[in-house]
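Dear U.,

Please find below the material for section 3 of the report. The protein was modelled together with S-adenosylmethionine; I have listed the sequence and SMILES used, followed by the predicted complex structure.
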Amino acid sequence: MILNMAEFTNYTKKGFDNRIVRYNEIHKITNEQYKALITAIDPQSGDVIFEGCAGYADVSKHIIEATKDYSIKPEIYIQDESLVQIKRAQDGLFISEDHILLGDIRKTGMPDNTFDKTVIKMGVHELPKEEQQKVFNEMYRILKKNGKFIIWELSLGDKTQLVFQDIVRKKDELAGFDALVKNRYFQKHEELKALFNNAGFKNIKDEYYIRYTFNPKGRFAELISKDKLKILDQKKILTQEDENELKERAGERTNQLIEYIRQRIPKDLRDVFEYKDLGDDIEICVNKVIMSGIK
Ligand SMILES: C[S@@+](CC[C@H](N)C(=O)[O-])C[C@H]1O[C@@H](n2cnc3c(N)ncnc32)[C@H](O)[C@@H]1O
C-alpha cells in the first residue's frame, strides 16, 4: 500500500488518471467554503487525520496551512486510487512518503481506531451506489472512538438527482471519461444521512450548505483534457495546430452539452434548478453539503 513508485509494475489505469482539472476552478470553490470545511474538521494539535479520495490533496494542504502555527502539528495521511493524482498531490505537499497511500477507499489497510478525523471531499460519489456504504463503514472502522468523519458532497433532492446525474454523465461521456460514466452515483441528502447512520455514526450534522452553479462553458478545458493528455503522451509537445484542433473540439462538445441540458431539464423543473439559458451557455444550480458524524 505504501507509495513507492519504483514498485508499481502492475498498476491498472484508473478513471482519474485522465482527468486533470483544478476543482477550485470547475467547482467555483470560495475561501469561505474552504474555511467552513476547516471549521468542520476542527484540526487539533497532534490529531491524526486521514484524507480519502484525496486527489491532489487540496484539503490536506488547507489543513497544513490552518495549523502552521501549532506547536504539535497534526499527522496527516492521504490516500487515492489514482497514481496520477497521487503524483499531483506530492507537488508542494509536506507529508512524508509513508503517509501517502495509493489504494482503494473501501479498504484503506489502516488499523482499527487510528484516526481522530477522516475527511473525504467530493469522493464518495465516485463509487457506485451499492459500494458507498463500504466507504462509511471503513471510515467508522479506522476512526478512534469519538473521532469525526467529515464529507463534502452533492446533496440532491428527489426531483434533481436523476436529471443532474444524467447531465454529469453526458459531460463525462463527451470528455471520454468512460469509467466515471459507469461508476458515479450522486447522492440525495437523505441517502447521505442513511449512509452515516447505517455505519453507526452519531450526531450526524449538516455543517454547511453550498449552492453550486454548473455551466458547460466552465467545463470547456475539462472536455478535452483527456485528448490533450493523449497527444502529450504521444508527442510530448502540443503544436499550434493541435491547440487549434483541441479548441474547436472543446467548443463542439460544450455546445453538445448545452443542447443536452436544454432537452434534459423538463420545464417544470427549471425553477428548481434556477435554470438560465444564456444562448451560448446554460447555468443550473444544485446543492452541496459539508456533513459530519461522530463515532
Ligand atoms: C472529484 S475527485 C476529488 C479530489 C479531492 N478530494 C478534491 O476535492 O480536491 C475524486 C477523487 O477520488 C478518487 N477515487 C475515486 N474512486 C476511488 C476509490 N475507490 N478509492 C480511492 N480513491 C478513489 C479519484 O482518483 C479522484 O482523485
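For the text of the report, you could mention the following: The domain at 5-294 is CATH 3.40.50.150 (Rossmann fold).

Regards,
Y.
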